[in-house]
Amino acid sequence: MLGKAVLRTSARQLGLQQSKRTTYILQQVFQPAPTPEGKGQRPPTDLHSLQKYAEVEYETDNEPPPVKIILLEDIEGVGNQFEVVEVKAELARNDLILSKRASYASPFDIKYYGAMKERMKDELEARVRIPYEYKQVARQLVQMVIPINVNMDNKWKLNKHIFLTSLRKEGIEISSTDAIFLPPEVSAIAGPNFELEAKLLRFYLVIEKAYIVPMLGRLSHISIDESKQILAPQLTKLPSRVDLAKHGLFPEEPVYSKNAEFDASYPVVDLMQRKRLEAAQT
Amino acid sequence: MLKCIWSVSSTRALGSVACSSLSSLLQPHAVEVTQIRGRKRALKATLTKAQKLERRLKREEREAARKQYTFMERIKIRRMKNLLSPSQQYPGRYEAEKETELSGRPATNVYIRNMLKTQFLTVSEALAKHRDLQHPMIYNNPNAPIRMRLELNMTTEKTTKMMSNSDEIVPVPFPFKHNEKRTILAFTNDPAMQEAVVEWGAEMAVGQDVVKKILKGHFRTEDYDFCVAHSDMAHAILPLRGVLRTRFPTKFNGGLGDDLKEIIERFRSGVKLAIKSDVVYPIWGLTDCVVGRLSMADEEIEANVETIIKAACSHRNPALGPFINRAVLMTIPGKEFYPIDVNKWLPEPTEEEIERVEKRKTKKAAKKVVERKPSEEDEEGEKKPTAETAEEDDEDDDDRRKSVTA
C-alpha cells in the first residue's frame, strides 16, 4: 500500500504519470465573418472578442459507452469464465482489465479464449457455481438475527407460520412456508414461557430448493398492549461462537446443491447436522 | 459627517514635546483640524417609481404570507419545520425515482424487500399478511381496525396554488364499528322531529331560535363535530356559514336534506376523510382513515377502499396526474404497512377536464410569447453578436481602458 503511494508520488515528481485527459467543447461567443476566398484567415489574436469562448460541453463528464470484454475467471455479478459480456467502461478499465481478470473482446481474443473454453469444457462443467442472486440474498440473511414474535398471553407452539410472519416483519418475504425448515427441538418449543425469552434458535431457509441458508432466531414475547412489552437488550452484533454455544448452537455455513433437490420432503435439518459434525471432525 | 486628521499635526506635536515642552501642545495652532463633509444629498435621494413598486410588492407578499396562517398555526409550522414533515414521518413517502436502480420482480422465492422496487399488493393480499401478524399466537388482535394512509399530490391547475384541507364523511357500503365519538348538532324546526333526531343519534337538536344565539356567541358550536339540517331550515341557517365554516350543512357535503334519519346514520357510520396538506412541503398531502376491521370479508373492505378512494379523488382534476401517490394499509395499533395497488379505482380524466388543464397551459404559453415579443424586438433593435459588433465592442473597451488609465 505504502509502496504504491511512494511510487505514485515519485512518478508524479518525475513527470512520468499518465496525464489525465480533459476535453472541453467550446464555441466562439462572437462569430467572425467568413474568410473571403483567396485571403488568409483572420488570426484570433486580431480582436479581443474573437478570443471569447463559451463552454458547450465538458466531455469528461459524459459516461463512456459500455465495453465488451471476455472474462478470464468467474466474477460475481458480472459473469462466468470465458463469457463475453458488456460492462461499464469504468469497471472494465479500472478493475477487471487492470487486474487481468478480463480482456477486451478483440477478434483474436474471442477466438483464442473460445478455443481455450472448448479445451476446458469438462472442467468448467464440473465447477460448482452458486447463482449470484442466491448469494446476494444469503449474504444479507446470515447477518441477521430474526426476532421470533410470540404472544405473551395466549398459548403458542413454534411453527413455520410464526417464523414466516416474523421474517416478513423484518423485511424478508418468502413465497411459502415450504422454504422454512425447523429442527425438531425448535418446533417442540411452546409457551408462553418467559424463561425462554431471548433464546437463540437455529432454523433454515432454502432458496429455490438449491441453497440452504442457516438462520438465527431470537425468541421474543410480544403483546399488543405496549405497557406489557418486555425490554430485552437488543443484539447489536452477530452472536459469537461462545454466545451460540450457550444456547447449544454452532456456527454453520450455507450449502448449495446443483440439482435443486431441497424440496419440502428433503431432510434438510439432518443434512445440516451431518455437515456440522463433519466440520467439527475436520 | 466630521472627520479629523491628526496624523501630521500629531507628529509635529510629538516633535515639539521632544524638543521644548508640553505647553506647546496646548496652543491651538499645534493641532490642525481638517473637515471632510459627506454629501447629505445622497441620503435624501428619492426612490424611483419602479423601486417603490418593488418595495410595496415585497411588503404585500410578506403580509399575505403572514395572514395565511393563524398565530398558533405559524408556531406549529415553525416547530414542524425543525422536525420531519408529516409525509416523511413513518412510513415515509414513496418516491419512485429513488427506486429506478432496483429490479422490479423478485428473482428468488426468498427475497429481501429493500432490494426490490416497492411491491404493490392487492387488498386481499395485504389483508392476508395483516391477518397473519394479528394471529392469536402472535399479536392476538384479529379484529384490529384497518387504517388506510394515502399520500397525496396537492398541486392544482395554478402552479402557485395548492389544494386546501378538507374534512368530510364518506358513506361506505359496509359500515363497521369505528369507536369514534362523533357529536352531531341537528337543525330542525319541527319539535316532534327534534325529539326523534336525538333518538336517532344526534347529540342535540335545535330550531330557528338558536341560530341567533349561536351568532351572538351564547351557544357554542365548537363541541360538535358535524352539523346536519332539515331542508326547511336551509334559509334560516345561512348566517351561520361564517361560524360553522366547513361544518356548515350543504347538499354537497350531505348535511342538508329531508330525511334526517338517513343523514344522521350516514354521519355516524361513514368514514371520516380528512385531507391535510403537508405544512413543510405544500405540494404533498396526507389522509388517514379507517376502512374496516380485519374480521370483515376481503370483498367488503375492498368495496370500502374503492368508495373512499373515489371520494378522495373527486377533490382534484384527474387530468393533472395521479392524486394518490401511494396507498398503504396498516392496522391500529401496528407498524407494518403494505402498499396496495389502487390504479384501477383512479378516475379517468374526461375531455372537459383535459381541456381545462390544456387551456391553462396554452393561455400561459401565449402570455409568455406576448411578454417576450416586445423585448425580443428591442434586443434585435439593439445589437446582434457578430464580428462587426465585436469590433465595436472592442473599440469601446479600449476607449474605456484608456480613460481609466488616464
Automatic annotation (TrEMBL), chain A:
Segments forming domain Ribosomal protein L9: 67-112
Matching Pfam families: Ribosomal_L9_N
Keyword Ribosomal protein listed: yes
GO terms for cellular component: ribonucleoprotein complex; ribosome
Keywords carried by this UniProt record: Ribonucleoprotein, Ribosomal protein
GO MF annotation: an example: structural constituent of ribosome
Organism domain of life: Eukaryota
Manganese keyword on record: no
GO biological process per UniProt: translation
Protein family per UniProt: Belongs to the bacterial ribosomal protein bL9 family.
Name of the molecule in the record: Large ribosomal subunit protein bL9m
From TrEMBL, chain B:
A Pfam match: Ribosomal_L1
Location of region: Disordered: 351-406
Keyword Transcription regulation in record: no
GO terms under cellular component: ribonucleoprotein complex; ribosome
Amino acid composition bias (Basic and acidic residues), ranges on this chain: 368-386
PANTHER family reported in the protein's UniProt record: 54S RIBOSOMAL PROTEIN L1, MITOCHONDRIAL, LARGE RIBOSOMAL SUBUNIT PROTEIN UL1M
Signal peptide: none
The entry's keywords: Coiled coil, Ribonucleoprotein, Ribosomal protein
Coiled coil: 40-70
Protein known as: Ribosomal protein L1
SUPFAM superfamilies associated with the record: Ribosomal protein L1
Compositional bias annotation for Acidic residues: 389-398
Family from the record: Belongs to the universal ribosomal protein uL1 family.
InterPro entries per UniProt: Ribosomal_uL1-like (IPR023674), Ribosomal_uL1/biogenesis (IPR028364), Ribosomal_uL1_3-a/b-sand (IPR016095)
